[in-house]
Write a structure and sequence with these properties.
The chain folds into three domains: 91 residues, MurE/MurF, N-terminal domain (Udp-n-acetylmuramoylalanyl-d-glutamate--2,6- Diaminopimelate Ligase, Chain: A, domain 1, 3-Layer(aba) Sandwich), CATH 3.40.1390.10; 203 residues, UDP N-Acetylglucosamine Acyltransferase, domain 1 (3 Solenoid), CATH 2.160.10.10; 39 residues. The strands form seven sheets. It has an eleven-stranded mixed β-sheet with strand order 10-13-16-19-24-27-30-33-36-38-39. The chain is of the alpha/beta class and 349 residues long. It starts with a strand and ends with a helix.
């Protein structure tokens, strides 16, 4: 949505330096590509030299950034935190799409379901018996909500999300397309040469302000609850097994996988393609680096990497030792090559 530089400055409490505050801004771009009607930001004053080359109509900068080299037509918007101010401006420039607030005649809503005021259900979505949706929820096309499901207020289910029976969501939960919540956990017992399924009769609870990416799977508990804590953000293509307990404000990056009955505490980061074995506890504020495999408990505030995952400093030390080992092998090979000559020299004496 087009707006003026002055309006953006008022929105984020910025002081305006140079340029024309009445100029219209219609979109945003990065610093190197922004044009005359676009907004961008400078993340750090150490990159201030880029102000001489950018063609942006307006640049958000932090206090203390030298602006004497900026282009003549560029406005500088001076704020405490350019990145957070940029986010606020993005919400103005790109307003969130709103639901119609209506129920499509092509949706199937069981007569025993309860929908809150302002909730929208789009075509070909279906809602099962005794399910309850709070106020202003948005169930997009093709979603399936099973029986006895509970959604809080302001939840958004993007197209083709599946919530199995008994799943519970808090307020302001966003789930992207293709994600499945509440499928059976992978639980089998080997008896008499056959894999016998352990009935998966628990559920999944997603607490408030959680966002889950596309094509992610969160399995229901065998018994009890699989839980995702408040404010946690989960990327695309993540697997969360049965009875996992994820704390508040964790970050699970793409293709991470968590084994059954594992505990992921508050503010943990699992980087891309990392894996955590079953029945493991990962301490709060821990960082598990990309492609690492956690096989045992990790203490609070640790940083681990490698397989099996160990403390980051220890892993880097081991890698340095491996490189030195390769050099040592070359030296040993040279000694072996010279050994016959050394034997001749000693025998001559």
């Amino acid at each position: 949505m087009a707006t003026t530089i002055r309006e953006l400055a008022e929105l984020c409490g910025a002081a305006i330096v140079g340029g024309n505050p009445q100029k219209t801004i219609d979109s945003a771009a990065n610093l190197d590509e922004a044009g005359a009607q676009q907004l961008t930001y400078l993340g750090s004053p150490k990159y201030a030299a880029k102000l001489k080359t950018t063609s942006a109509g307006a640049v958000l900068v932090s206090k203390g950034t030298p602006g004497d080299g900026a282009q003549a037509g560029t406005c500088l918007l001076v704020v405490d935190d350019p990145e957070m101010a940029f986010i606020a401006c993005l919400h103005r420039l790109y307003p969130q799409k709103l639901s119609s607030g209506t129920l499509s005649a092509k949706a199937h809503i069981d007569p025993a379901a309860t929908l809150g005021e302002g909730t929208c259900v789009e075509a070909f979505a279906s809602i099962g018996a005794r399910s309850t949706l709070g106020r202003s929820c948005w169930v997009m096309a093709g979603c399936r909500i099973g029986d006895n499901v509970i959604l809080g207020n302001n939840c958004v289910l993007h197209p083709n999300v599946v919530l199995y029976d008994g799943v519970r969501l808090g307020d302001n939960v966003i789930i992207h397309s293709g994600t499945v919540i509440g499928a059976d956990g992978f639980g089998y017992k080997l008896r008499n040469g056959e894999h016998v399924k352990f009935p998966q009769v628990g559920t999944v609870v997603i607490e408030s302000n959680v966002e889950i990416g596309a094509n992610t799977c969160i399995d229901r508990a065998a018994l009890g609850v699989t839980r995702v804590g408040e404010g946690t953000k989960i990327d695309n293509l993540v697997q969360v097994a049965h009875n996992v307990q994820i704390g508040a404000h964790a970050l699970l990056c793409g293709q991470a996988g968590i084994g059954g009955s594992t505990v992921i505490k508050d503010y943990v980061t699992l980087a891309a393609q990392s894996g955590v074995a079953d029945h493991v506890t990962v301490g709060s504020q821990t960082v598990v680096f990309a492609q690492s495999g956690v096989t045992k408990d990790i203490a609070d505030k640790d940083q681990v990497m490698g397989f099996p995952a160990v403390n980051r400093k220890e892993w880097l030390h081991e890698q340095a030792a491996f490189r030195r080992l390769a050099d040592n092998q070359k030296q040993v090979a040279e000694l072996v090559r010279l050994l016959p000559k050394l034997r001749v020299a000693v025998s001559d004496k």
